[in-house]
């Protein structure tokens, strides 16, 4: 029986896929945690865990009181 990934990891992978295909391009603001929780039919804490892991890896940038944005990796390369 295959190991099922925790939901927060599934959300993280889905967000990464959406970033890759341009649904959320670099610099774009992600929907609020509340909206993402509704989209994935889970708690805001599960979504937060996925977002926090991506922030720690530098894939997203959190701005307190403003939102979470896709990191612009082109700026980091220069």
Q: How many domains, as an integer?
A: 1
**Overall strand count:** 2
Order of strands, main sheet, comes to 1-2
Helix run count: 4
Look at the helices and sheets and give the structural class: mainly alpha
| CATH fold descriptor | Arc Repressor Mutant, subunit A
Global geometry: globular
Strand content: 5-15%
What does the average pLDDT come to?
92
Considering the protein shown, what is the CATH homologous superfamily? Winged helix-like DNA-binding domain superfamily/Winged helix DNA-binding domain
Give the biggest beta sheet: 2 strands, antiparallel
Class, according to the CATH hierarchy? Mainly Alpha
Give the helices and strands as they follow along the chain.
HHHEEH
User: What is the percent of helical residues?
Assistant: 40-55%
Cα end-to-end separation? 46 Å
- What Rg do the Cα atoms give? 13 Å
Pfam families: GntR
Protein name: HTH gntR-type domain-containing protein
InterPro entries: Bact_HTH_transcr_reg (IPR050679), Tscrpt_reg_HTH_GntR (IPR000524), WH-like_DNA-bd_sf (IPR036388), WH_DNA-bd_sf (IPR036390)
Keywords: DNA-binding, Transcription, Transcription regulation
């Amino acid at each position: 029986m295959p190991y099922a990934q925790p939901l927060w990891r599934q959300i993280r992978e889905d967000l990464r896929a959406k970033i890759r295909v341009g649904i959320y391009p670099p610099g774009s603001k992600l929907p609020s945690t509340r909206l993402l929780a509704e989209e994935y039919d889970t708690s805001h804490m599960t979504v937060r865990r996925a977002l926090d892991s991506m922030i720690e890896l530098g894939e997203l940038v959190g701005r307190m009181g403003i939102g979470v944005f896709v990191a612009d990796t082109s700026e980091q390369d220069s």
